[in-house]
Design goal:
332 residues, binds 5'-O-[(R)-(carboxyoxy)(hydroxy)phosphoryl]adenosine, binds zinc ion
């Protein structure tokens, strides 16, 4: 079964073709980053309009790259949410229209399930069960994953998401949007030990996170820096990245210890962070466990993860193909 998947929840238009048995055949992606850059963040109205502009050419490209046509497609999937309402409607409408015109099932996928299962697109592929660290611009969660659709929330952020902590700190430092990659690039030239930043909830017994205090601490340090001291800014960037990564690593390890599992899957945009990848891989090796990451290009939003999640649901018999639509909720 060939699944055509659409992602349009924020500022990336993604379309992908997945074979339920053979995996990803092709994916096409357009990032609106440049368009939103001058506003310092995503402008929802512009995002929706640009999805409209891009989505059909990308669909054509993905199908062509896969060597297929619409006639080969057996099901259509789209991101149902969470995300920007207008942006989501573009992907949902196009997907439903194609499904309707071809009498195909349309499968609504939760954006986070897409991220959650995306490391299964890589090799080696983790077996169930595993712990997943889901770190994106909007979410920071630890989940126990026992199978497709079988997710248990272990802990989550009480305020800002990890990606948000990167983005907001980067903004305070006058770095561009999106802040995560910009801040981590600057951090490469910095000395993290120069600034002592808080690591909220680092030693709490639960698996929850809190990042809003860090942002305030960064603001205070930033105000104390001499104007134009670029090295100090790089040092602060390195200290900020270190603080976020240290908490993410500590809580992930705690989740593995509490569940007794050995496999950790990292998903979401912040999963592209090099320091996080290195530190987690290191810790997991020492614990005789293994860390699994999605391919770098599939860490941030993309259509492949949506088409793939739908294919996994189809294979698991979780899609009522006759209902011509499905809904999905995360437990608990
Ligand atoms: O998963 P994603 O593309 O979109 C959401 O669903 O939110 O994640 C975007 C987030 C942003 O906050 C961005 O700054 C962050 O991922 N990000 C990074 C890196 N690349 C993307 N954060 C830290 N280091 C990176 N290399
Ligand atoms: Zn995302």
């Amino acid at each position: 079964m060939i699944v055509l998947g659409f992602e349009s929840s924020c500022d990336e238009t993604g379309v992908a073709v997945v074979d339920a048995d053979r995996g990803l055949l092709a994916h096409a992606l357009y990032s609106q980053i440049e368009m939103h850059q001058e506003y310092g963040g995503v402008v929802p109205e512009l995002a929706s309009r640009d999805h409209v502009r891009r989505i059909l050419p990308l669909t054509r490209q993905a199908l062509t790259d896969a060597g297929l046509t619409l006639d080969d497609v057996g099901a259509v999937a789209y991101t149902a949410g969470p995300g920007l309402a207008g942006a989501l409607l573009v992907g949902a409408s196009v997907a439903q229209a194609i499904a309707w015109s071809r009498d195909l099932p349309s499968i609504a996928i939760h954006h986070l399930e897409g991220h959650l299962l995306s490391p299964l697109l890589a090799t080696p592929r983790p077996d169930f069960p595993f712990v997943a660290l889901l770190v994106s611009g909007g979410h920071t969660q630890l989940m126990r994953v026992d199978g497709v659709g079988d997710y248990t929330l272990l802990g989550e952020t009480l305020d800002d998401a990890a990606g948000e902590a990167f983005d907001k700190s980067a903004k305070l430092m006058g770095l561009g949007y999106p802040g995560g990659p910009a801040l981590s690039r600057l951090a490469e030239q910095g000395d993290a030990s120069r600034f002592d930043l808080p690591r909220p909830k680092l030693h709490s017994p639960d698996l929850d996170f809190s990042f809003s205090g860090l942002k305030t601490a960064v603001l205070i340090k930033m105000k104390s820096l001499p104007e134009g001291d670029e090295q100090a800014k790089a040092d602060l960037a390195a200290a900020t990245q270190n603080a976020i990564v240290e908490v993410l690593v500590a809580k992930s390890v705690k989740a593995l210890q509490q569940t007794g599992l050995k496999r950790l899957v990292i998903a979401g945009g912040v999963g592209a962070n090099r320091l996080l990848r290195e530190r987690l891989a290191e810790r997991l090796t020492r614990l005789r466990g293994q860390a699994y990451f999605p391919p770098l290009e599939l860490c941030t939003d993309n259509g492949a993860m949506i088409a793939f999640a739908a294919a996994m649901r189809l294979k698991a018999g979780m899609v009522d193909v006759d209902s011509r639509n499905t809904a999905f909720t995360v437990k608990p």
